[in-house]
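To illustrate the input format used throughout this study, we show a single complete record. The first block contains the structure-token representation of the backbone; no residue identities are included at this stage. The design step must infer an amino acid for every position from geometry alone.
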């Protein structure tokens, strides 16, 4: 009687008991037993009683019993609510948060329909670059279209928004230049400039022309565009010119626009030896006579370096006995400083490459000599044509001497020319107008090496992230607007990559170089990340594009409970990596990206 009363009192619960056992072979085996127990009071004591062994039940049944005993009400799967729509959200939200943190919407212009469309085009270019028509078709399939109200946009509205944005290019870039090139934030007054090209589809674009293709698309029309950045590579302005414009001409145009459009009077422009030539420096000197103060950092071409290295010239190998850089002067460069540098690693690489090219050329020329000797190749013109193909392929014909007749062909290495070139391996000379009081020789070298930042921006714009090419637009103003959209997207990517460095393979803290001439090296932490593919906490690392794809799996779901007509938006539970991505940009995960 008392035992029956006890069974009707107390509280039932599920208990999981884990055990392990080592068998005769030394292998450890783990077991889990699950029991239904109740707890009851017997006088002053609390006792437990096992009511049933649940170990043989399926895990789903055990979980259901456990939840019921905890007071939860269970319903059949799908019986309580429906998920009416699920849209990718995390990548859109992250890019939009960074854009608003940087003040990008206000930078574009006053609030209006065109601004919303332009903003959507820039964000879309970051999350998934595609043609404008393809981008328009994808807007309803992410939260970008719904939150910005652009899901129903038409093609005409897209093109009108591009025209609106193009009309505001000068105002946008003037604000960026004031923000990143002003002396208060850029005390060295330094800006980087470089030029690249991208091919164009169709035949009706007025900017498309055939010229030197940096994409290797020979025979196709192209445009050229120059990007102006701050010393860290943050893009500030972009200008598009016809595809057959020479680099020095493009440089002259951008300098004039820096002065006229942005109102900048003092700046140090850094460009490579093909960009800032002696003729362009002469143009800068003329501009400076009107009251501006434009300096430059560039490099000398090989013939000028060889002249400095003559027997009586200032560039002697003894300069590098103690250190890898030295400042010299020469009457051919009045009012300028020359910084001579020698990079041993570059010298070794050039020597190796020359050896390989000479050996390959010699091998092919030996075959030609064998054909002439076997009389399968005859005639000075035919032999000369075969010789020209070989030296044109390997580009070291200046290092060979040859003698060609109708029936004979002999060749030999020009060892004197080879030795003269090898003597200058690894040596480059920078020229600058900036006085030593403003920039030390080491700072001049660092400033020139920063051109690598612009090259990185070009990779972001053209291939890695934004896929600018090919150009599909016909009207010139649309081409200008398309390139501007890509530049502003690159501005966003620059900041996102920096913020998300802990989640990617980016070197967060590259070691400082004691010798600015020495090659850059990765930090030990970056090497460890690359080797283990995880950070120090064991979280997986991703590429920048892979991280955006992972963020896209964070969806916003529209839930409608049965018996109601109201839909409730709800985010999926974020992964630790998704949550950290938002932490690194200083924001909680927003339910909507609307302002």
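Output of the design step:
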């Amino acid at each position: 009687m008392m035992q029956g009363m006890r069974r009707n009192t107390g509280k039932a619960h599920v208990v999981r008991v884990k055990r392990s056992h080592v068998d005769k072979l030394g292998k450890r085996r783990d077991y889990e037993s699950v029991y239904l127990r109740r707890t009851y009071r017997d006088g002053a004591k609390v006792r437990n009683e096992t009511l049933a062994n649940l170990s043989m039940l399926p895990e789903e049944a055990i979980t259901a019993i456990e939840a019921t005993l905890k007071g939860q009400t269970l319903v059949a799967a799908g019986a309580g609510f429906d998920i009416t729509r699920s849209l990718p959200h995390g990548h859109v939200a992250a890019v939009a948060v960074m854009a608003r943190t940087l003040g990008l919407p206000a930078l574009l212009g006053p609030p209006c329909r065109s601004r919303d469309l332009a903003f959507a085009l820039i964000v879309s270019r970051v999350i998934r670059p595609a043609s404008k028509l393809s981008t328009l078709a994808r807007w309803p399939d992410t939260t970008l279209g719904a939150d910005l109200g652009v899901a129903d946009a038409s093609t005409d509205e897209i093109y009108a928004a591009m025209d609106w944005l193009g009309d505001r290019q000068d105002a946008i870039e003037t604000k960026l230049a004031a923000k990143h090139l002003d002396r208060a934030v850029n005390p060295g007054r330094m800006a980087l400039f470089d030029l690249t090209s991208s091919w164009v589809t169709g035949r009706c674009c007025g900017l498309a022309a055939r010229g030197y293709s940096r994409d290797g698309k020979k025979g196709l029309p192209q445009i050229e565009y120059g990007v102006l950045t701050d010393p860290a590579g943050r893009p500030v302005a972009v200008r598009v010119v016809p595809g057959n414009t020479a680099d020095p001409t493009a440089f002259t145009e951008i300098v004039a626009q820096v002065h006229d459009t942005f109102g900048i009077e003092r700046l140090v422009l850094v460009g490579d030896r093909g960009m800032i030539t002696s003729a362009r420096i002469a143009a800068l000197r003329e501009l400076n006579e009107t009251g501006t103060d434009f300096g430059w950092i560039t490099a000398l071409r090989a013939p000028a370096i060889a002249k400095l290295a003559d027997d009586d010239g200032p560039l002697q190998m003894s300069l590098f006995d103690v250190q890898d850089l030295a400042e010299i002067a020469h009457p051919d460069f009045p009012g300028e400083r020359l910084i001579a540098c020698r990079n041993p690693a570059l010298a070794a690489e050039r020597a190796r490459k020359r050896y390989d090219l000479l050996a390959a050329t010699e091998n092919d020329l030996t075959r030609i000599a064998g054909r002439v000797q076997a009389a399968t190749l005859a005639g000075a013109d035919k032999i000369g044509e075969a010789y020209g193909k070989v030296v044109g392929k390997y580009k070291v014909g200046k290092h060979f001497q040859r003698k060609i007749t109708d029936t004979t062909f002999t060749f030999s290495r020009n060892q004197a020319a080879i030795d003269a070139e090898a003597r200058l391996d690894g040596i480059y000379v920078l020229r600058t107008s900036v006085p030593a009081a403003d920039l030390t020789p080491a700072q001049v070298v660092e400033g020139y090496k920063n051109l690598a930042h612009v090259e990185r921006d070009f990779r972001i714009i053209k291939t890695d992230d934004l896929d600018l090419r090919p150009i599909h637009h016909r009207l010139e103003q649309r081409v200008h607007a398309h390139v501007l959209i890509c530049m502003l997207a690159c501005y966003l990517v620059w900041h996102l990559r920096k913020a998300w460095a802990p989640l990617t393979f980016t070197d967060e803290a590259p070691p400082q170089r004691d010798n600015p001439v020495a090659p850059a090296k990765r930090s030990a932490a970056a090497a460890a990340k690359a080797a283990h593919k995880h950070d120090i906490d064991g979280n997986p690392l991703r590429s920048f594009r892979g991280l955006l794809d992972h963020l896209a799996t964070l969806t916003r779901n529209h839930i409608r409970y049965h018996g109601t007509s109201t839909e409730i938006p709800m985010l999926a539970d974020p992964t630790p990596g998704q949550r950290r991505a938002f932490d690194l940009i200083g924001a909680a995960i927003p339910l909507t990206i609307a302002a």
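Structural context for interpreting the output: The chain is about 40% helix and 20% strand. The mean pLDDT is 89.
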